[in-house]
């Protein structure tokens, strides 16, 4: 399957503590429902839950027609403004989550040699770090030449977790390779500018005003409940034609 039709998405909590972790879960739910509406296959590769139902990080794969061209515009920093359920004084909190959209590499692009991979197995852990599985099913793989480390513990099967970890490692190595090539072409100054641009927020979800704003195209939409339920068609189509 070509990179246009197969990707891995990573959603990580940014600033905002537990509220940011809850936002990660909300974004995953939104993309999962959108993927279902598009008829794409999806698979949860790894997740790190928190004690109150959020996630420090969620990594999942999507495959289907035009998945990369539709989802690549989602990469960047997403900001949420809302009153947390734990907020007693009704104050609005601002939190962020960072999204990466990585095309899966072709077999010829990234070759993972067994002698360059170190594999560790351990017991999977749940919220708060407690062990949730008595068997050693979680996997941590280290790519020795680069030092990249990837873990997976979502499946109850050791081999499936290793397969997931290797898939994540492959896309990260491809992203690293592309970044290094881009740096050589454009020079270190342009690479630094690009890194700063990626740190800029691309979108704000303002719940008190029931509004989503995409800052790249200076466009807003209302009805966040509908949007968060996976109704992203209009937004994604406009981004595809504008960016």
Automatic annotation (TrEMBL):
The keyword Cell cycle does not apply. Residues 1-74 form the Peptide chain release factor domain. GO terms for molecular function: translation release factor activity. Signal peptide: none annotated. It holds the Pfam family RF-1. Keywords: Methylation, Protein biosynthesis. GO terms for cellular component: cytoplasm. InterPro entries: PCRF, Pep_chain_release_fac_I, Pep_chain_release_fac_I_sf, Prokaryotic/Mito_RF. Belongs to the prokaryotic/mitochondrial release factor family. Peptide chain release factor 1 directs the termination of translation in response to the peptide chain termination codons UAG and UAA. This is Peptide chain release factor domain-containing protein. It comes from Candidatus Nealsonbacteria bacterium CG08_land_8_20_14_0_20_36_22.
